[in-house]
Amino acid sequence: MSARRVCALSDLQQDQPLKVEVDGIPIAVVLDSSGEVHAIGDTCTHGDISLSEGFVEGDTLECWAHGSAFSLRTGKPLNLPAYEPVPVYVVQIDGDDVLIDPAATKAMS
């Protein structure tokens, strides 16, 4: 698989998650306060809730339903009730295009 355009960089608003779908995979794209673009699985591992409806603070995305926060860098949950990570996807920026390959996930550290 190869990276696909999911949105324009100019479509992203700082700290406002944007839900996109690539090959049926829901992904939350976030432009954080430092200007970095992140892409993580959009489904909370605790309650099957869309993370793109949640809240961004620093480099975390918090599920609005039960409060689990996930690292935008690693996908790891930072608090309960979630204990399983979400996938983190490699993001490429080409001009104003945000590209994501749903088969290219970042290794967890």
TrEMBL record:
Sorted UniProt keywords: 2Fe-2S, Iron, Iron-sulfur, Metal-binding
Organism annotation: Microbacterium album
Descriptive protein name: Non-heme iron oxygenase ferredoxin subunit
InterPro entries assigned: Rieske_2Fe-2S, Rieske_2Fe-2S_sf
UniProt keyword Metal-binding present: yes
Keyword Iron carried by entry: yes
Residue ranges annotated for the Rieske domain, each copy included: 4-100
Superkingdom, taxonomy of origin: Bacteria
CDD domains: Rieske_RO_ferredoxin (cd03528)
Any one GO molecular function term: metal ion binding
Pfam family name, one: Rieske
Membrane-crossing segments per the record: none
